[in-house]
Amino acid sequence: MRYRWLIIALSLILAACSTERIVDLSPTSGAIPALAVPSPTITATPMTGLPTVTPTMVVPSPTVPTTQVFVPNITSTRRVPLLGTFFFYWYNCPQQECDPGLLRAVPPGWLTPLPNDPDPRDGVSYSSYNYDWYEQELRTMAATGIDIVFPVSWGDHPHPWFRQDRIDLLVQANGVLEHPLRIGMFVDTTAQQGMYQEFLGNGYRVGPQVPRLPLSDPRSGYFFYNLHIRDFFTRVPRDMWATIEGRPIIITYTALCCDDLELNGTLWRAVKEAFSTDFGVEPWLILEETWLNSQALAPPDGLPSSAEVADGVYRWGTALLGPYTAELRGFRVSSVGPGFDNSRIPGVAEPRIQPRDEPPGGGPIAPGAFLRASLAAIPPDTDLVLIETWNEWPENTAVAPAAYTDRAGRPLPPDFYLNIIREWRKQFGLQP
């Protein structure tokens, strides 16, 4: 009975998610029905014997749907995993936060106009205000063989160039592609910490020294669903949704935002139920592994664990820690990255570096060795492969075109890492 008031409040808060109503945040009476979910089987395998360290990176009107299952338009004699990547649209260069000295590789448009940008009215540089930037990035993803783009969403961030309405331009640009990418949601849960602090009157503050959002607060679901997830999927047309078994994909960042993780199964179940009420379909929820820690897997009696509610699990941090595959009830997600280097970010007390030319677990040094070996380690029966990341430049995890160099400082082709991905896809008989 200790948590009954929380279950009641969270259920009714999220059940009242109509755009025509103001959500009642106060605890009321009612109950959330129990889920009939089989006992979960979770297996997670670091694919090259890498250290099992949990990453501690610092970041970063609905209608009833016609259910569709996304299947890539490809022919192959092998089972083909879906290929997705995390896309950051928090840039507005060269005006804000675009010091090239902080980057290991500078992408086109960072300081000078993008080549062939036809319309200067919305900017001509690497910016979320610039329609042409979105179109070029999406076309390059499609040409590389990316199936799904996961925009890294913080909801309505204080920076105007990183607000939710930037998704509108991405959707517009995607719509002109001959074969539009499918769009899933990457919920950067750092935002929930900032939203909560702002709601309390403390300003939009995030980071390890800032109090976290307690999931025991019955308003917690409001910050995840009402202020974040619902608006994202209202902005993305249904025929662009990335789906698994007809259900739109939501991937989360780590649980570093929040306390009381033993309640996160209750939170995510309420979010899924609210989504189903608004959109007529339950989302396919892929949680980062910190949402399934020992605390989360031991909820109070009568409440679901996060493993019972989630549809998949993955690891964030594979650009640093090496390739990783996690499986939940038969659904496998593999995540890989090209390397990591946050040594140029101001305020990082203990920089962490994984050179791009050193393969995970050791081996011959060569340009791109970390990404090449990581892709080669993916099990053949993986369902979804995640590239970490398309364009997180300050942490040097990007694969998008840029002025990359090798260890000796010699220039590499701008699409060097994209060609590694293309080569990996050839094993399935694919040509993007």
Describe the 3D structure:
- The protein is α/β, with parallel strands linked by helices.
- It has one domain (40-428): Glycosidases (TIM Barrel, Alpha-Beta Barrel), CATH 3.20.20.
- It is 24% helix and 14% strand.
- It has ten helices and 16 strands.
- The strands form three sheets. Strands 1, 2, 3, 4, 5, 7, 8, 10, 11, 12, 13 and 16 form a twelve-stranded mixed β-sheet that branches. Strands 6-9 form a two-stranded parallel ribbon. Strands 14-15 form a two-stranded antiparallel sheet.
- A hairpin with a 2-residue loop joins strand 12 (324-328) and strand 13.
- Helix 1 (4-15) runs parallel beside helix 6 (264-279), helix 2 (131-144) packs across helix 3 and helix 5 runs parallel beside helix 6 (264-279).
- The longest helix has 16 residues, at 220-235.
- The radius of gyration is 21 Å and the shape is globular.
- The N and C termini lie far apart (55 Å).
- Residues 1-21 form the signal peptide.
- Residues 127-426 form the DUF5010 domain.
- InterPro entries: DUF5010.
- Keywords: Signal.
- This is DUF5010 domain-containing protein.
